[in-house]
Amino acid sequence: MKTVISETKKTSMTKNKPVVLITAAGSSTRMGSNIKKEYMALESGTVLSTVVKKFLSGTDTELICITCPAGGKKESEIAVFCDPQVSALLEKNPDIKIIFTEGGSSRQASVFNGLKKIRETLKNTENTLIAIHDGARPFITNELLTRTFDEAEKSGAAFPGLEPTETQKQINRDGVVTAHLKRSDLISVQTPQIFNFNLIFDAHVKAEKDGQEYTDDTEIFGKYAGPVATVKGDATNIKITYPGDLKPNEENKKMIHTGLGYDMHRLVTGRKLFLGGIEIPFEKGEDGHSDGDVLLHAITDALLGASGLGDIGSFFPPEEAKWKDADSKVLLKTVWDKITEKGWKLENLDCVIKIEEPKFLPHRQEVIKSIAQVLEVPEDSVFVKAKTYEKTGNWENQVEAFATCLLSK
Asked: How confident is the model at residue 135 (pLDDT cuts 50, 70, 90)?
């Protein structure tokens, strides 16, 4: 059974599907903002929704449990489900559950609450791996997930870490150096920390009873369950702690691509006229293999060009009978799902329709709404203009559409 999916690898891991526990119950006091850091805007949603997406797309999980502040379940739900890409991933994987539980007075207590909630939800946790991950660590990659899951499956517990880049010293309460530490003997801890579920649960039961405070789950596991293995971490997998942690990473990781699309069809009697997925009342319609919607075809080509995934003809060859009279909204949605799976986000889409009759303006807002719904983006990300042929050329018998887009990731 696969546990982690990456571009080049599908790894067989464990008898049961893994589960994920995302810790997001902290107060974010060091951010200096009245907005909790996990709820700050990032990509197509928030920091928290970005973390959730990484596990929805990068693992074969069946359950994601998120810890939230006391009384803050509704805010946490909004922070996750405001992201249209989360909804799209869940539509493709309807068996995956996302649940929420209140945290405790410390990270240790919050994790234990989450573990108990997961045990209550699942019928069986035998041979199950659990990934415990910081809700403020949104830059985790599929490659790092794969590496850590692989090691946890072999060792029973694993986490990613990096050797410190600066010399480390041990000091006493007065600030006096008491030991000179070797960087090669030290490691900076990252998440996800991945464990055998039953072993980490039993370890937390014992830790709660001993009255000690532990810094993280590897310390608890190491004391009560066994050794913890490490894998090489990723310098970009930072935990957002201060305001400056978010912006530089977002800017450094962002790519911008533009795309241009064009389509033209003859107008003939006996066909319906579709523009942007909306049927426009008229005596003629587009003569095309599908429903002939030139606007959606131009948009599809623009998006494919920007993402580098091909063109509409390579996805839906006109010589194939199955695309005869196909709904162009379905074609666009099929392509857009593949583009968003690659991590691309639509910044804006600008289109021009060239048609003499009928008048397009009365239908513009409906068309914009239709396109935005297919792409699951705000309507203000889409605009459509119309031009006429000024009664030159073959203006009575044709319609053209141009589209440009801006994608980022």
From this structure: very high
Note if the pTM is more than 0.70.
no
**How many whole angstroms separate alpha carbon 267 and alpha carbon 11?**
52
Query: d(Cα 119, Cα 39) in Å, to the nearest integer?
Result: 27
Cα–Cα dist 23/20, whole Å: 10
Number of other residues whose CB lies within 10 A of the CB of residue 298: 24
CA 345 to CA 25: how far, in whole Å? 28
Tokens at 145, concatenated: 């997930």
d(CA 97, CA 113): 17
Backbone angles phi, psi at 160, to 5 degrees: -85, 145
What is the rounded CA–CA span in Å between residue 393 and residue 183? 75
Kindly give, in sequence order, each residue whose CB lies less than 8 Å from that of residue 281, ignoring residues fewer than 6 positions away.
273, 358
Beta bridge partners of 286: 267
The reported pLDDT for the residue numbered 252 is 46
What's the residue count for the chain?
A: 409
- Between the CA of residue 328 and those of 119, 333, 334, what are the distances in Å? 45, 8, 10
Q: Which amino acid type is present at position 140?
A: I
The DSSP call for residue 217 is: H
Which two structure tokens, joined as six digits, stand for 61? 């999980």
Would you say residue 248 has pLDDT above 50?
A: no
Nearest to 402, CA basis, from 318, 335, 327, 302: 302
DSSP for 144-187, please give it: HHHHHHHHHHHHSEEEEEE--SS-EEEE-TTS-EEEEE-GGG--
